[in-house]
Amino acid sequence: RDEDGIYYALDLGATTCQVLRIQLGGRGSKIINHKVELHQIPQELASSTSEELFDFISLTLKEFVEREENGIDQAPDERKELGFTFSFPIRQLSISSGVLIKWTKGFAIEDVVGKDVSRCLEEAMSRNGLNMRVGALVNDTVGTLALGHYYDKDTVAAVIIGTGTNACYVERSDALIKSQGLLTNSGGMVVNMEWGNFWSAHLPKTSYDIALDEESPNRNEQGFEKMISGMYLGEIVRRVLHRIAEESDIFGESAYHLSVPFILRTPLMAAMHEDDSPNLREVGRILEEQFQMPGISLKARMLVVRVCDIVTRRAARLTAAGIIGILKKIGRDGISGVASGRAKGKPKRSVVAIERGLYTNYSIFREYMNEAITDILGEEIAQNVVLRVAEDGSGIGAALLIATYSSKR
Ligand code: GLC
């Protein structure tokens, strides 16, 4: 069902929610234009009730739709289809429905766990007088993959590195034990890996990781995410600096702010890490203005930058290792194909769509990640691996997917 027209999408991430309007042409195959609006999610909503959360996002969407359609004649009973990007682990029941398995990224609204989140949203939309139904329910990685694929047919996987981290990739249907009997036209199926929950005894866990996990609302879960993503990097750095402050006098008397959990947000950490002003003036300014730590010596400022560097480098290298794990699984790492006798000859080009702040706004993170991909694969093979930003892919991709797959109820 490839249809031209206007599609809306709602993208619930963690700290933000995006509402989008996309116009498709060329029998639903071309994005003619799109508009994206970003809204902060009030922090208290993350631990409120199902009704409060879904009322908030449906009202945000309603106001957006009303602004967009102001003056445009609409058939009053025309029910629009919505792409709903819901970036938490769900058990997918159909293209447009799925049950929340558990919350991640600091959310804890117990009465949603076990419920179909599309229903919750549809009920809230109808409570608030918005005539829409969910046409596609997707994870942010899947939306990003869809937009990545729209740009470049060699896209095989998508990775999100923002507040949380996750990846999805295209797997051969017959390699999937869980979906036996489910046939697809293409022979492939997108797997949302939820890699944030990956864990292995080989991962280099420190006492800071252990303490962070123990004090988190989701203990023993999302171990990979807690080493990599934006919600946690600043907090790991804060824990290290706090310990240094306790065990030395390098930060002087005024380091008590460092004892406040989550006070060092990752964007500020990145700003200190990327400080190229003479004598790390910017680091000094941030420490003074944000943490009331005036007059920190150059030596101590250099130490702060060094800690940021170690924490970020580890995160970037782990992300790169995750990507190469996927390429290896699908025989695109240039090594496994040859070893198994498959795909000999010229390695194929593999594009990985990538999204969110840690990659797009943090250049040192990006550099370390690219460096690690080359370190692991070798320069020759790494040349065939293209990381490509799919901006706003999580939401736009969801709208592309409704245009292609949903069916009217
Ligand atoms: C968390 C969620 C996952 C999402 C990722 C990135 O790991 O569980 O569904 O894709 O964050 O937003």
TrEMBL record:
Tell me the keywords, alphabetical order. Answer: ATP-binding, Glycolysis, Kinase, Nucleotide-binding, Transferase
Pathway(s) annotated for this protein in UniProt = Carbohydrate metabolism; hexose metabolism; Carbohydrate degradation; glycolysis; D-glyceraldehyde 3-phosphate and glycerone phosphate from D-glucose: step 1/4
Q: Which residues are in coiled coils?
A: none
| InterPro entries, A to Z | ATPase_NBD, Hexokinase, Hexokinase_BS, Hexokinase_C, Hexokinase_N
Which residues are in the Hexokinase N-terminal domain?
2-150
The protein's matches in PROSITE patterns, at most eight in alphabetical order, are given as: HEXOKINASE_1 (PS00378), HEXOKINASE_2 (PS51748)
- Specify the enzyme's EC class, one word: transferase
Query: GO CC terms on record?
Result: cytosol; mitochondrion
Q: What Enzyme Commission number does this protein have?
A: 2.7.1.-
Any one Pfam family match given in the protein's UniProt record, by short name? Hexokinase_1
Name one molecular function that GO assigns to this entry: glucokinase activity
Q: Which family does it belong to?
A: Belongs to the hexokinase family.
This protein is called Phosphotransferase
